[in-house]
Amino acid sequence: MSRARASGTIGDMGMDILADRFINYLRIEKGLADNTIAAYSRDLARFSRFLKARRLSVPDVSEAHVSEHVTLLGRSLAPASVARNISAIKTFFRFLAREGIIGTNPCRFLDSPRARRRLPHVLSLEEVNRLLSRPDPATPAGRRDRAMLELLYATGLRVSELVGLKTTNVNLEAGYVKTMGKGSKERLVPMGEAARQAILEYLSSGRPALAKGGDSPCLFLNMRGRPLTRQGFWKLIKGHGRAAGIRKRISPHIIRHSFASHLLDAGADLRAVQVMLGHADIATTQIYTHVTRERLKEVHERCHPRP
Predict the structure, then answer these.
(1) Among 17, 53, 76, 140, which is most buried by a count of CB atoms within 10 Å?
(2) How far apart (Å, rounded) are the C-alpha atoms in residues 155 and 263?
């Protein structure tokens, strides 16, 4: 007997209960990242409202109902959001079928549209250098900001990974950081000498002043001695971007994009960049090769005597 039928029948398990069981499965058995789980939860909540509006229970859902829901989504959501909603619903019904909760999967013939992947925005090397030179090394906050920016560009960490670093995650002697990425997957990422020196200066004469005698294990602290948040760092990087005269939209993720693009421009191996970024699928990393080709095309059109 399946675990689903052992703990209850479909008659006493509504959509919300089934969705909770599915989310627990994603969290415990699949080990998906919190952001992915949160997105799937929102998508299933939207699908639950659709079912309630039509007074449908889960066993009553047909292919036509799912198609109607997807059509409605397409009227209000971007293609990428529709694709994610479809993925959530398909995975949900696949789970129910495997657990024996439903007999027929209404999504078995549902196709997921290919969302058009936009090329990521990147900074030029000159813009990166201007940005990294903006923090004032004469102040504790400036030493922190320089260390964070240097480390971000040196490693391509996600902003959540950067602000979540503990002092024990940084090995300055060996020159690498240890981080926990999506899906609770640990990886080691090397850093360059510029980042290593910036962190050394921050640890010796920046962080002690910010810590104010506290004992936080986090590497990067705010002015009150508490861990710097994602939102706090977003504000900092935008401020330094404006001060550096960078007119492009700037964010921590754009620095991550620039890290990957600049490595590939210099001849780095795609597989190595995938590992450093923590991408599960190399196809995700390949988007940066398109950035490189687009840049070459722009240079050719701008400089060739017969464009």
Answers:
(1) 140
(2) 11
What share of the chain in percent tops pLDDT 70? 89
Long-range (24+ apart) CB contacts under 8 A made by 21-30 are 22/91, 22/92, 22/95, 22/96, 25/95
Is residue 241 a contact partner of residue 130, using CB atoms and an 8 Å limit?
no
Q: Which residues contact 115 (CB under 8 A, 6 or more apart)?
A: 79, 80, 83
Which strand (E) or helix (H) includes residue 86?
Answer: helix 79-98
DSSP state of 41: H
248, two tokens: 């492009």
pTM surpassing 0.70?
no
Q: Could you give the residue numbers annotated as active site?
A: 158, 182, 253, 256, 279, 288
User: Which class is 125-303 in CATH?
Assistant: mainly alpha
- Would you kindly state where each structural domain of the chain is located, as residue ranges? 3-98, 125-303
CA distance 254 to 39: 22
Provide, rounded to the nearest whole percent, the portion of the chain with pLDDT above 90. 62
What digits encode the pLDDT tens for the residues 226-260? 999 999 999 999 999 999 999 998 999 999 999 99
Note the CATH number of domain 3-98: 1.10.150.130
